Amino acid sequence: MSRPAGNTRLKAARLAAGYSSQQALADAITTAALTLGIRGLAVGVRQVRRWESATPPWPQPDVHRVLAHLLGQSMEDLGFTPPWGGTRSQAGTALNTAPRVPLPGARQASVPALQTTTTQPGTIGRDFGAITRSHRQLYWSVAPAVLHPAVLEHTRLGCALLPETANPARQTLAAALAESYLLAGRIEFFDLRQPERASDTLLRSLQAAGEADDPLLGAAILAHMAFIPGWTGERDAAIERMTAARTYARRGEASAEFWAWLDAVEAECETLCGDPHAALRLIRHAEDALSKGADHASPDWLDWFSPVRLSAFKGNTQLKAGHLPQARQTLHEVLDALPPESAKQSTVVLGDLAAVEASDGRPEEACRYAIQALDQLAITWYATGMDRVREVRRTLAPWQNEQCVRNLDNRLYDWGTTVSALQR
What we know:
The protein has helices at 8-16, 22-35, 45-51, 61-71, 124-138, 144-161, 169-191, 195-212, 215-230, 235-251, 256-272, 276-292, 307-320, 324-337, 343-359, 363-379, 383-395, 403-412, 415-423. The two termini are 29 Å apart. Helix 13 runs antiparallel to helix 14. The longest helix has 23 residues, at 169-191. Among the domains are: 8-71, no CATH class; 124-213, no CATH class; 323-424, no CATH class. The protein is an all-alpha fold and 424 residues long. It is built from 19 helices and no strands. The protein is globular and about 65 Å long.
């Protein structure tokens, strides 16, 4: 069987521009970014290889600008398919290479004129959004591997509808599409532990939010994107994305709850990058914001955060800071206050409680909480919760010959749990 030819359009344009190798183009992009006033952009040969594959991902906005500058063609003419389903320019017409989302230091680009005849009714945005809202509610109970394909199919529908829809329905549709991509990215990162895929999905979410001109949704997406480098210890990249998220939030009517959530995200990034004391300061700032309140209501889609979830962030941070009695008390209060539909969050809290007991030299209590987390994971899978349990098991190595730890191993490595974890 012959292999797919890949993105021959980009390869041909690269060779025609004098870049004989993928590495040469990667180096040229990095150099040209500086001349265009774009700081911190670096592209490797691996990324160029992905662009020249049979299914090239849509480039980031800054890369979009640099590629068009270097190769003199639109993204569609270079073999990329826009996530909103736009059509290719006709041969001989002027190319519109303006990015669809704001570039740092630049004014927001306007939405390009529609290139197809408007065929969708004015209710299409609201109708599409109703399904998006249903998926949002299903997230808390439906298995991620089951829900994820349905959400992706919904985003494909949105991309097909967007070029056929006129404002104001177009903006409503784009906002719902951005939310659907955000949900898909959350599942990929938190539930399925696929950070690279989540990064691409969240970028598409950001592009759709730009189409909707929804700064709060853009802020939420950027904060989720900060988790990805944060969880690998890349503090500078995480904080840069949080700075962008806060900038977007200031453009909208952010609620006190929204600002507190941004603090909580940055606190988790600081904790993961080894500075739990900075994280505790951010948690205190978030608590102050919630206590003062604000004039603005939170958007409906902000259903992943609440005061009790802020306390869950706090308990984990106290654990990492070595404040074990405080962490134990905070996490117990969280576990008692979590609503029944927060099964995924409860696995994380149970894992953190197990870590507190392990750090305090109490292996039997640690194993008891870890097994409770596994019982819940058997009902509602959550990769983040499983990560917590595995971290606890590693800290229990000094007691690995104790019966309680062997009982945990029997539960952690039974047939169902092992196969389930490896499948995902």
